[in-house]
């Protein structure tokens, strides 16, 4: 009975939804990365080089 129910359900829409969700998130991250200003990128790049103290520049 359960096997018949699972065989009758179509799961094709899940793959399409996952693909659309992946490309939406990928596009959002790409746009956010491209629109990030130079000051923010430089401050994030300096994080591994600091001793836990923030620069206020």
Automatic annotation (TrEMBL):
Keyword Transmembrane helix: yes
Transmembrane is among the record's keywords: yes
Keyword vocabulary terms for this entry: Membrane, Transmembrane, Transmembrane helix
TM region(s), chain numbering: 12-35
Protein name per UniProt: Cbb3-type cytochrome oxidase component FixQ
